[in-house]
Write a structure and sequence with these properties.
- The structure holds 3 protein chains of 3 kinds.
- By secondary structure, chain A is mainly α.
- Chain A contains 10 helices and no strands.
- By secondary structure, chain B is of the alpha/beta class.
- In chain B, the strands form 2 sheets. In chain B, strands 1, 2, 3, 4, 5, 6, 7, 8, 9 and 12 form a 10-stranded mixed beta sheet that branches. In chain B, strands 10-11 form a two-stranded antiparallel ribbon.
- Chain B has 2 domains: 24-104 and 221-269, D-Maltodextrin-Binding Protein, domain 2; 106-218, 3-Layer(aba) Sandwich (D-Maltodextrin-Binding Protein, domain 2), CATH 3.40.190.
- The longest helix of chain B is centred in the first third of the chain and has 17 residues, at 2-18.
- Chain C has 8 helices and 10 strands.
- A 6-stranded mixed beta sheet of chain C has the order 6-7-8-3-9-10, with helices on both faces.
- The chains are: A mainly alpha, B alpha/beta, C alpha/beta.
- Chains in contact: A-B, A-C.
- The interface between A and B is large, with 35 and 37 residues.
Chain lengths: 233, 272, 233
């Protein structure tokens, strides 16, 4: 079965099977868009949590950490109820569209990116705080310096978010509906093929997804190595 | 060559990332049972519908119970499921315009080839279920309120068997779709009730085969209902109605009849 | 010279989690040279310096430097920490960060040559040796042309060459009229650089005298024991 699956995976890739390309590209599009949106929201949030003090800050950090463990199905259900035609945002007609999947993934990865950003910036803040006070660096300058000096760590943070988004199935299944040629992505296709008993095909799709995950991880590791060599970590 | 083609696709798609502009000419959402999807029926019939009517049908395939719930929340335009009583309630509650019989097939009991409950060849489903229950051989139930699950519950009831004593032991409620339940049954060497279409198309049969079939109580009727625009103003009732009419038409019915997998006809049209 | 003390500390106290770290410190220093702060570990030397620099807000009392009250950090002063705080950037970018917008390119070049790091200007600062890092931190501190230099054991465990370079820089700074406050455990260094000594013990000032007097005739038993190496530092 395994060898068959590897063969099938290879055939699918080499032949550039149009269906495979379609769902692969949609997977990447959806998760990439989710990443862009979540990054824009979560990185400043994590930075603010790391360098400022306000009432409820600890609570928010705890909340974000807890949200990291949130089951995707719960997120999917929540987004479904929001976007359902009889839900509060039903008028937007977004259910069963890629946009709905993006929304679900954004909610899913914001806690991850915000928490990791918080950790990265918090560590840097402990290191830099006295110097910035001593040099009387303005808060804006400080934020910019934190983001710039943490850029390699922040990039790996984003990739972690991307990894979670693209490998997720529970939420996108509910809000996307796994509609052929419209909202079918790698993970929902794997679930579908499994339910059809096409285990070999499902596994070969899994191998393709695994390859993407490996690529992402390879990028993370090489960035870490590069940054370490340059004294940036 | 391949790389160039992929690169082209990526460039085009990246453009699309910026504006997810899915302006499909005319499309409807079909809340559907899984068997019609997993059997490949939609892949066969939807292109014909697209050609004749121009309508793109987006299929959301879930269990009958969930499909009805989704439809009650107005998240769909047409409902195609197989649980007549639940569908009629759906219509009488005002969620559906009118329910039509569309087609039928039948349920079968499949199980491991060594047949531990010794039911092979039986055409009496009650006898077979009694045999399974009395010998406590594993039986996998959908347990998900789907059409097949409802049909299975009804069969236990008319056979006079209380399965609640068997849970945790031999009566396994998977809470999953037909395909997932078949996978579990194969893994656990458990008997399982399946619609014939899903079973024929199912690719992970291993040593499993049909043991019980042909009892008229195993009849499985599929119905189609347009979701009521009075309850759900967003329903694309015109396109939905076109779709329903096409399937009920002579052309639709004969195309259902001509869909076969490995020489087996999966669905039998019976629109009035 | 006016009669205004350069450093005037009145009844300074600092409590950290209810423990008295500094108690009723009163000092008036008119010495224009290097004021050495000495004392055993836990005497409160570093916290005293942090209070003078405005990094730590005291619990009570007041501090005036050059006649101005210290309510926070000020660009009149610069501080170098025992563990140099360097940005995760190149040597030259560390200098540029401290320089104000109108800092001239030749000021940066001067700072580079002061640190003897002309050849390593594009080298990651975090990968420099300990001595090189401290030289960089010191010349960065001087870039803003402070009038007071606050040094917290800047030469602890550095290579002899770097110690020599740093001492030279400090001497040049005082010769140009700069004031230095310097914490050191190195009695030889204190003798070489110090013109007056403040001896701290358990958060209190036990002696405040001219360097030669302190080393030749310490008044308190604690100072004698410290100088004889009987108090473990």
């Amino acid at each position: 079965m395994l060898i068959n699956a590897f063969n099938d995976a290879l055939t699918l890739i080499v032949s550039a099977d149009p269906d495979l390309i379609e769902i692969l590209l949609l997977s990447v599009q959806v998760s990439f868009s989710a990443l862009a949106i979540a990054g824009i929201l979560a990185m400043p949030l994590g930075t603010i949590l790391a360098i400022s003090h306000f009432r409820g800050r600890k609570l928010l950090i705890t909340f974000l950490n807890a949200m990291m463990g949130l089951p995707p199905v719960v997120v999917g259900l929540f987004v479904y109820l929001m976007l359902s035609r009889s839900g509060p945002l039903g008028i937007l007609e977004l259910l069963y569209t890629p946009t709905a999947m993006i929304i679900a993934q954004v909610i899913l990865i914001i806690p991850i990116i915000a928490s990791l950003t918080y950790q990265v910036i918090e560590e840097l803040n402990r290191e830099y705080k006295d110097l910035f006070l001593s040099l009387k660096i303005s808060p804006q300058q400080a934020v910019f310096a934190y983001l710039w000096d943490a850029r390699y760590s922040l990039f790996t943070t984003l990739l972690a978010g991307f990894g979670r988004a693209i490998s997720e199935v529970g939420a996108v299944m509910i809000v996307g509906g796994n509609i052929n040629h419209l909202t079918r992505i790698m993970t929902t296709a794997i679930a579908l093929e499994t339910s059809k008993g096409e285990l070999s095909l499902a596994l070969s799709l899994g191998i393709v997804l695994l390859t993407i995950a490996l690529l992402v991880n390879a990028i993370v590791i090489s960035i870490k190595t590069f940054a370490g060599e340059k004294g940036y970590v | 060559m391949v790389i160039i083609r992929i690169a082209k696709k990526i460039t085009i798609s990246l453009g699309a990332v910026i504006s997810f502009n899915f302006c499909y000419a005319e499309s409807i959402i079909l809340q559907s049972t899984t068997s019609t999807k997993n059997s490949g029926f939609y892949d066969y019939v939807l292109p014909m519908i697209k050609e004749d009517t121009g309508i793109t049908v987006n299929v959301v395939a879930v269990g009958t119970g969930q499909a009805i719930k989704n439809a009650q929340r107005c998240d769909g335009d047409v409902l195609l499921v197989h649980s007549k009583a639940a569908e009629e309630k759906f219509v009488s509650d005002g969620y559906g315009v009118k329910r039509f019989d569309l087609m039928f097939n039948d349920f079968v009991i499949v199980g491991p080839s060594d047949d531990p409950a010794n039911i092979s060849g039986s055409t009496d489903v009650s006898e077979a279920l009694n045999s399974i229950a009395s010998q406590q051989t594993p039986f996998a139930s959908r347990g998900d309120n789907s059409g097949t699950h409802k049909a299975e519950r009804e069969l236990w009831k008319i056979s006079g068997i209380d399965t609640s004593k068997g849970t945790k032991m031999w009566y396994l409620e998977t809470g999953s779709g037909m395909g997932a339940t078949l996978n579990i049954a194969v893994g656990k060497a458990a008997y399982v009730l399946s619609d014939r279409a899903t079973w024929i198309k199912f690719a992970n049969k291993q040593d499993f085969k049909i043991h019980v079939q042909g009892d008229k109580r195993l009849f499985n009727q599929y119905g189609i209902t347009l979701i009521n625009p009075i309850k759900c103003p967003n329903v694309k009732s015109k396109a939905g109605q076109k779709f329903v009419r096409w399937l009920l038409s002579d052309k639709g019915q004969s195309s259902i009849e001509s869909y076969t997998v490995g020489g087996n006809q999966l669905f039998f049209p019976n629109a009035q | 010279m006016s009669n205004t003390p350069l450093i005037e500390v009145t009844n300074l106290s600092l409590k950290l989690s209810n423990a008295d770290v500094l108690s009723s410190i009163t000092i008036a220093s008119t010495d224009p040279g290097v004021t050495m702060v000495m004392g055993p570990n836990g005497a409160g030397k570093s916290l005293f310096l942090r209070c003078l620099h405005g990094l730590t807000i005291p619990t009570g009392g007041s501090i005036k430097i050059f006649g101005n009250s210290i309510l926070g950090t000020s660009t009149d002063q610069a501080m170098v920490f025992q563990k140099p705080v360097l940005l995760r950037r190149s040597v030259i970018d560390n200098l540029k960060f401290a320089g104000s917008t109108n800092t001239q390119r030749n000021a940066i070049d001067d700072a580079l040559s002061l640190a003897r790091l002309q050849d390593k200007q594009h080298f990651p600062a975090k990968l420099l040796s300990g001595g090189e890092q401290q030289r960089l931190a010191l010349s960065r501190a001087l870039l803003r042309e402070p009038k007071l230099l606050v040094l917290d054991e800047p030469t602890a465990s550095l290579d002899p060459a770097s110690v020599q370079i740093i001492e030279q820089v400090i001497q040049d700074f005082t010769e140009r009229g700069g004031k230095v406050i310097f914490v050191s455990h190195d009695i030889g260094q204190a003798k070489r650089l110090g013109s007056e000594i403040i001896f701290l013990h358990m958060g209190r000032v036990l002696e405040h005298s001219v360097a030669s007097a302190f080393f030749n005739n310490p008044v308190t038993d604690e100072a004698r024991a410290y100088l004889n190496g009987h108090i473990i530092i």
